[in-house]
């Protein structure tokens, strides 16, 4: 029997989607399902789980002071890191593209050497985490040789005999981590926003200038609305990154295993999860933590997408 044209088209499309969909189900969806199953057990991570405890691990999580402290740290990172990164990236991208004098884009042009500055800003993205850790271990050295101590000594905030303990300080350790995250990611989003700005028609800027708008008004009335889709996407990806930060915390901060800083003042959910899984042998408990992280990240992404939704502007 001859199949209808629509049916043949659907079968043709399905034949191409079947392979990738199968791979996605096996290597992405199934591990999530399996993790949820393990989170309901008392599992050591070595032998197969033999005892089902149902939701006891989840109840214990929210009575665990270290978990709650790590969750609070992730929430602080979630608020500060994406906000500062996007604000700085947008500002520098705007200056690189329309921060010069006259001529060029809509009556103004980017600063001289803007292409060179894009490369410089993007440079942290090509560095591995290991190199970044080595660089900032030297910068945060608790003596006058460290870059940041040299700066605070020069500013007269302390002296060479009393250097600041950045990574060993409960006050500074989390902010030191966030500084590195912003430094690492602001260049990537600068390039992203810069590319999006270059797609905005010059007529919009020319019309704004003819109406007497300055650069600040142009930024908020023209550039920002037309880049909102890019900002929304950046916010979601940065929110996901804020819920991780495992590599930096585990390798840069002091702690018995996987870092965490002094008295868990730099602890994040990812490092506490790995400590429970690999060191303490509480794999079922760690799986419950992973499920909680998954749902927090999912909910945050949906909230951000919903809260930042605006009418799409075409140009």
Description:
With 315 residues, the protein is mainly α. Helices cover 66% and strands 0% of the residues. It has helices at residues 5-39, 56-61, 65-98, 114-122, 129-139, 147-154, 173-197, 202-210, 215-226, 228-242, 246-252, 269-279, 283-307. Helix 10 runs antiparallel to helix 13. It is flat. The model has no long low-confidence stretch (mean pLDDT 81).
List keywords for this structure.
single chain, 315 residues, mainly alpha, 13 helices
Order of helices and strands: HHHHHHHHHHHHH
Query: How far apart, in Å, are the first and last alpha carbons?
Result: 49 Å
Overall, the morphology is flat
Mean pLDDT: 81
Total count of strands: 0
Helix percentage:
55-70%
For the CA atoms, what is the radius of gyration?
Answer: 25 Å
**Biggest sheet, open or closed, and with what strands and sense?**
none
Name the poorly predicted regions.
none
Beta-strand share of residues: under 5%
Q: How many helical stretches?
A: 13
Structural class estimated from helices and strands: mainly alpha
Which helices and strands, and how do they pair?
Blueprint: H1 5-39, H2 56-61, H3 65-98, H4 114-122, H5 129-139, H6 147-154, H7 173-197, H8 202-210, H9 215-226, H10 228-242, H11 246-252, H12 269-279, H13 283-307
Helix pairs in contact: 1-13, 3-7, 3-10, 4-7, 5-11, 10-13, 12-13
Please sum up the structure shown:
With about 325 residues, the chain is mainly α.
